Amino acid sequence: MSFPDHFSAIAARYATFRPTYPAALVDALANLTTAGMAWDIGCGNGQLAVALADKFPRVIATDPSQAQLAAAIQHPRVEYLCTPAEASGLPDASVDLAVAAQAAHWFDWQRFVAEVGRVAKPGAMIALVSYGNLDLDGAVGEAVDRYRHIVEPYWPPERVHVDNGYRDLVLPWPAVSAPVIDMTAEWKRDEPLGYIQTWSATAKLVASEGMDAVDALCADVAHAWPLDDLRTIRWPLTIRLARR
């Protein structure tokens, strides 16, 4: 089956500049389920999969993009498979945790719900995690806000699910209260600029209009942010949990 492939062409940049999920998220997921097998769905380059391997003896990480998997972080307890979320090929009732991080909004939702219901064990935890806009203050934040306005028309329609906190992605099992967790990073100037260039909307903007808007953003940020200064970047996480 086809899939909305927004990241294969920028897989190396994605692996370099996407932020790392916090240990508190991994701890929370591990504490809510048995430390058996975890399935990282839409794993991208494996940032969450490798973190899950610290808590789970086996992690299956799947993504339909072979280019993303080619850039994935290797770990002896992580097995990467190139397969879509809606047709994983995993055995029935085989996973204790099924988690999709910054991926569920791309899924064919009804087919995914059927597949995760098949693969998850009774009592398994199913988790959806996403993050939206990064928080930046002052002149840098103003420059990024101006760029967001320019890039807004280029977001794929699935972006609405990120913006509304996944409220329309309904899991048909009992909901579980989710912890409040932020993802943070200590970054120098070039790192958020690289991250913004991994946005699917940026890729579409550049393909359509070239680099002018991105170059203008880089110039504005450079004017307000000395090259070697470290700043704390924050993304509030959306976490939706259900018990199979």
Describe this entry's structure for a reader.
- The chain has 244 residues and is an alpha/beta fold.
- It has helices at 11-17, 23-31, 47-52, 66-70, 109-119, 138-151, 159-163, 190-196, 200-209, 212-224, and strands spanning 37-41, 58-63, 78-82, 95-101, 120-131, 175-176, 182-187, 231-243.
- The protein is globular and about 55 Å long.
Q: List unreliable stretches of 5+ residues.
A: none
% residues in beta strands: 15-25%
Let me know the largest β-sheet.
8 strands, mixed
Distance between the termini: 26 Å
If you consult CATH, what is the topology?
Rossmann fold
* Count of beta strands: 8
Percent of residues in helices: 25-40%
Q: Average pLDDT, to the nearest integer?
A: 92
Q: Output the CATH homologous superfamily.
A: Vaccinia Virus protein VP39
Number of helices: 10
Provide the number of structural domains: 1
Which features would summarize this protein structure in a list?
8-stranded mixed beta sheet
Please describe the topology of this protein.
Elements (H helix, E strand, L loop, with lengths): L10 H7 L5 H9 L5 E5 L5 H6 L5 E6 L2 H5 L7 E5 L12 E7 L7 H11 E12 L6 H14 L7 H5 L11 E2 L5 E6 L2 H7 L3 H10 L2 H13 L6 E13 L1
Parallel strand pairs: 1-2, 1-4, 2-3, 4-5
Antiparallel strand pairs: 5-8, 6-8, 7-8
Helix pairs in contact: 1-8, 6-10
Provide a brief overview of the structure.
With 244 residues, this protein is α/β, with parallel strands linked by helices. The chain has helices spanning 11-17, 23-31, 47-52, 66-70, 109-119, 138-151, 159-163, 190-196, 200-209, 212-224, and strands at residues 37-41, 58-63, 78-82, 95-101, 120-131, 175-176, 182-187, 231-243. The model has no long low-confidence stretch (mean pLDDT 92).
